Amino acid sequence: xxxxxxxxxxxxxxxxxxxxxxxxxxxxxxxxxxxxxxxxxxxxxxxxxxxxxxxxxxxxxxxxxxxxxxxxxxxxxxxxxxxxxxxxxxxxxxxxxxxxxxxxxxxxxxxxxxxxxxxxxxxxxxxxxxxxxxxxxxxxxxxxxxxxxxxxxxxxxxxxxxxxxxxxxxxxxxxxxxxxxxxxxxxxxxxxxxxxxxxxxxxxxxxxxxxxxxxxxxxxxxxxxxxxxxxxxxxxxxxxxxxxxxxxxxxxxxxxxxxxxxxxxxxxxxxxxxxxxxxxxxxxxxxxxxxxxxxxxxxxxxxxxxxxxxxxxxxxxxxxxxxxxxxxxxxxxxxxxx
Length: 338
Ligand code: 13P
Known about the structure:
Helices cover about 45% and strands about 15% of the residues. Helix 11 packs antiparallel against helix 12. It contains 12 helices and 10 strands. The N and C termini lie far apart (about 40 Å). By secondary structure, the protein is of the alpha/beta class. It has helices spanning about 5-20, 35-40, 50-60, 75-80, 90-95, 125-135, 155-175, 195-215, 240-255, 270-280, 295-305, 315-335, and strands at about 25-30, 70-75, 100-105, 110, 120, 140-150, 180-185, 225, 260-265, 290-295. The protein binds 1,3-dihydroxyacetonephosphate. The site of 1,3-dihydroxyacetonephosphate has 10 residues, from helix 11.
């Protein structure tokens, strides 16, 4: 590799290390405009660009956030907005000691040739130019989410391969731009499948992702893997205990080489408390890479419920977020204590 080509890679390694630094995780606040609007409306808040901005400022400006949060993922709309004082989001969070990130995928769309409900994540067209622009705005890392549905017939081999290839093309483009890719293959909790079936599917999905990353020369030391935890389907009645989830999840992850910078889990619809308990149980198992959080709903749902759009309840919203961040940061700090 020429010296020029290796520069972004080494920059990526440093950023990735910061993202998964001991005792810290990533806050996912990158809901698309449609998803964020639906969540605001459900909470009784009018879905306007200004309310989405107010909500993201509330989250980002939570006092002490940088103690447990290394980075915040935003969507395109937020990255182009400013705090109320006119400071762009990326600049504002950088100043708070937090890395700004950007969701760059264009969403999971029906996969032609796939089976029922299967999707392919779109957004590769023009991606290098978009990444260059985001780097200019201050983004240090990016996110791309692939989605897999478990049923008797799915995920199909075609959906697993197509999504792995897209994740790898995205990751390679990010590293070429000096941006750390969060590689997110999410096997959904929806269904009545067993934890063993989730383990099997998650392992197959990861194997394909590893193969495609290797084919495009992606440096695993400069990516953060964002997987689902290995859990039973949410249509089953008895949730597995944290120790069971932890053991099953780490067993699947063992196929990743030590070189991988780190793992930051999505919460996937688990309750905030369950996601934290599972994360904490994992810290008791020795692994070559840090295991931390990159939760969305499990961090922000309580904040939205406490704020409900009212200026006089911004502090309540921030306190609710701070409580979830503190619980998860304490969970991941257990690794150092054990
Ligand atoms: P959840 O933690 O709510 O699953 O969201 C994480 C995320 O970033 C989804 O892409």
